[in-house]
Every structure is written in C-alpha cells, then in structure tokens.
Design a protein that fits this description.
Helices cover 43% and strands 12% of the residues. It is an alpha/beta fold. Helix 15 crosses helix 17.
C-alpha cells in the first residue's frame, strides 16, 4: 500500500493526484515522419524540393491526399459547451478532453488527430471557422458542442465540405448502443423488430440513437425529454424533436417516463434523469437496460439487475460499457481509407453490425459488446465502414 502523502506548502497537484502528473505538458506532441540529417535531406523536405510538390498539388488538388498528412488527419473541434459531463466549461478547460480524444484516435485507429478548441459559440462563427480550417484535414470530428446547436453545426458543415463531418457525441454513442442492443436482443431470444424501446434524453445522443434505431428496424420507439414523452401534440418542440415525434411513438403515448416505460422492452438512458425503481419494475420481462449517464447512471446496475436480463452502462467498472472509443477510430479510419465525402447512415449501421459481430460467438448477459482493448474492433469497423462507403457511393477510391 502506497504511503499517504501529507500535503505541505511545497506539495504540488502532481504529487496529490496522478491525473495531474500524467497531464503535465499535455498528452500530445508533433513528430516528423522523415529524417532531416544533412543538406540533401533539407533540400528535399523543404526548399527547393518542396516547391515541386506544391506546384503539383496546385495543378491537381487531389494530390494533397498523397503528398501531405491530410488523408489520415482529423480535426477534433469543440467550443467547450458540453464537455464530458462537465457542461459548459469553455474552450481552454476542454483541451485535456480533446487531447485525450486525439490520443484515442491514434491508439485505437491509427488516425492522427489535432485538438482545436474554438473561442466562440455562435453557429455561424463555428461553421465559418471550421470551413476555413478544413483544407488541412481529411475529416472533422465535432466534439462536446451542446444541443441543439450541434445539429445545425454538423448539418451546415457537411453541406459545405466534401470530407466526413461526424459529431461523436451523437453518432459514436448511437453506433455502440445499436451494436450492444443487437447482441442483447440475441441473448434474450429476440430481434430488434420485436422490441419497444424508450430513450431517456432528447439531446445529441438521444436523437442520434433514435435515428439509428429507426434505420436498423426497431419495433417501436419512444423518446422522453425533461418535459415528458416527445409526441406530435406537444407545442414546445424544436425542429429536431418535431421530426423525432413524427417518426416515433406508434402507440401515441403521452405523459412522463412512467408511462413510456410501462411494458417497454428496452431502456436507453442518455440523460441525467433518475428513474425510480417502482417505474423500472413495470418494464416487460427480459428487459434490456442501458443506463449510460456517466458517472451516475439513470438506473444503478444493482437496481437494473433486479428487473433486466441485460444491463449496460457508460462506466468501466461494470460489464457492458457503452464506450464511444469502440466506434469513432474505426469509423474515421474506414472513411479516410476510401476518401469518403461524408459518413452516411449506412456506414453507421455497418459500423454497429461489425462491432456486434466481434463478440457474436462469445455472447452472454455480461458480454454484449467488446472491450475497448479488444484488438479485433478497429479493423472490423474500419473494413465495414469502407465497404459501406463504396455501396453508398460516397467513396472516391
């Protein structure tokens, strides 16, 4: 057992908390891929040799993918308004998370990524800034931008850019949740079309999960926000929520989470709203509960396990962690490998199917999703996304 540190006036945060020690100086650095050992190396890496490459790219802009870092480099862009459960902490405070995201891109997908924290929150300013930065990158990963602005930012950027734009808080979560739900349905002897699901939370993740579940063929789906079930009769809905209301809730339910969950097969939590145990108890037999709020799930696993056949959370200290790192490195690696112009719904569903298939022969109630450290994950997702990009007609090679 480590000796206890007794703070003194000279004790630093590094001494008291290993997280500070790990972060000192940042988690990233830039390294060259070619040596510059002598005059000849310098003349090739820089002037005059570099001029020949610049001229070739000026004549054929597509060559930027062959002769610069663009083809394998992503910008991780945030405005710091919805950071990792911490909320609106601003661009500077967001940087440790963005550096961490870049680290995960490289570690799990072999993709280079650059953290970019913007000191603006206006949608027009964010879009214009990213459009001007885009020539340096092969893809844009939007991160921790609060809803509903994140939907508009992503839509407008994808309209103006011919490279993938992917808001991980939406689509990464949705891909992993779909993969885990496919396998959970198998464990309980059902298919997606047999399930009625309830999503608690209508922010970035909740909307994306709803869309991908509909694309994948879920039986029925009900979305609940802080004011209750999202249905067509409500007059307080944003444009995104109105679309969700039109596409979901076949049963025409109205009311709160207690109405939605009665008899439901699946609970998917992506909000901070706690669900009382007596409401959980009204779910259908062999229920599936994914309580993904972090660090405090909407339904604690100890409660969920009383009523559910399969339980998942966003935490690493329980089985079945719904972790975005299972998706975004492979999604971008696949998209970049074929120089895709965007990430389609088909590519997202393909990523989820590939992720589910990794553990298809090992399924149990405590293993419906692979570990982030399973080395089979990124290659499987990468290949599936590349193939889907070609099917969907967005691949350039």
């Amino acid at each position: 057992m480590a000796a206890e540190i007794i703070p003194t006036e000279n004790t630093s945060q590094d001494d008291l908390d290993p997280a500070f020690a790990l972060h000192r100086g940042g988690k990233l650095e830039v390294r060259s891929t070619v040596p510059v050992r002598n005059k000849d190396d310098l003349s090739l890496a820089y002037t005059p040799g570099v001029a020949r490459v610049c001229t070739a790219i000026a004549e054929n802009p597509e060559l930027v993918n062959d002769y610069t870092w663009v083809a394998n480099t992503v910008a991780v862009v945030t405005d710091g308004t919805a950071v990792l459960g911490l909320g609106d902490i601003g661009p500077k405070a967001s940087l440790p998370v963005m550096e961490g995201k870049a680290l995960l891109f490289k570690q799990f997908g072999g993709v280079d990524a650059v953290p970019i924290a913007l000191d603006c929150t206006d949608v027009d300013e964010i879009v214009e800034t990213v459009v001007r930065l885009a020539p340096s990158f092969g893809g844009i990963n939007l991160e921790d931008i609060s809803a509903p602005r994140c939907f508009e930012v992503e839509r407008r950027l994808q309209e103006r850019l011919d490279i993938p734009v992917f808001h991980d808080d939406q689509h990464g979560t949705a891909i992993v949740a779909l993969a885990a739900l496919r396998n959970a349905a198998t464990v309980t002897g059902r298919e997606l079309k047999d399930l009625r699901a309830v999503i608690s939370g209508a922010g970035a993740a909740g909307v994306a999960i709803a869309k991908i579940l509909l694309e994948a063929g879920i039986g029925d789906l009900c979305v609940v926000d802080s004011r209750g079930i999202v249905h067509e009769g409500r007059e307080d809905l944003t444009s995104i929520k109105r679309l969700i209301a039109e596409l979901t809730n076949k049963a025409k339910l109205q009311g709160g989470i207690e109405v939605a969950l009665a008899g439901a097969d699946v609970f998917l939590g992506v909000s901070a709203g706690k669900v009382p145990e007596d409401v959980v108890a009204t779910m259908a037999p062999n229920a599936i509960i994914f309580a993904m709020a972090n660090p405090d799930p909407e339904i604690m696993p100890e409660v969920a396990q009383k009523y559910a056949a399969v339980v998942a959370t966003g935490r690493s200290d329980y089985p079945n962690q719904i972790n975005n790192v299972l998706a975004f490195p492979g999604v971008f690696a696949g998209a970049l490998s074929v120089r895709a112009t965007r990430v389609t719904e088909g590519m997202k569903v393909a990523a989820a199917e590939a992720l589910a298939a990794v553990v298809a022969d090992e399924l149990s109630a405590d293993k419906v999703i692979p570990s982030p450290f399973d080395e089979r994950v990124a290659p499987a997702v990468t290949l599936a996304v590349a193939e889907a990009a070609r099917r969907d007609g967005v691949a350039r090679i």
